[in-house]
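Researcher: Sequence of Endonuclease III follows. Predict its structure.
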Amino acid sequence: MTKDQIFEFFRRLAEDNPAPETELEYGNAYQLVVAVALSAQATDVGVNKATRALFREVQTPAQMIQLGEDGLKEHIKTIGLFNSKAKNVIALSQILVDEYDGEVPDSREELVKLPGVGRKTANVVLNCWFGQETFAVDTHIFRVGNRTGLAKGKTPEQVEAKLEKRVPQPFRLGAHHWLILHGRYVCKARTPECWRCPVVDLCSYRKKMLEKPKGR
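Model: Prediction complete. Tokens:
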């Protein structure tokens, strides 16, 4: 894609959804860290179902430690990998209490030191809570970046680097939300719904389905 095409790509997505947000539910920075950590290899819908009751009970790292690993597991047992995730959430909560007075740090370098927090999780927290221009590359963004030609790469890190370089203002803050939502609801993994895509003419995908299949 050319610079003009990339600008137009995001302009259309922004016109469609002027104020994009994560679909994860949270009330503060700590709950956001927990929600994103729990969302690895799980759906946002599934995480939200598990955390609604949890977050009514737990708003701080200290309260999570008090709940304990077994108590946390009871809340999140419907989420994949819940045993290891519970262990990580308790461990990261202890570090936040011991080293950060219960506050969530606002730098990627410090966030990725927390158990269960990788670069993608850190980028989501920095973007959604601290308003930093980061690009959290999940499976949806990886697919959309490669399929459309917006940001091709063999690894999430390569796609992130391309987005970092190519996404223009004023779209940088909302870019990863638009791409996730586009991948989740339009540019789907198995059958991209090209017939209703607002950026279909800008996309380099060769197997476009421009007519809606019967029965869909």
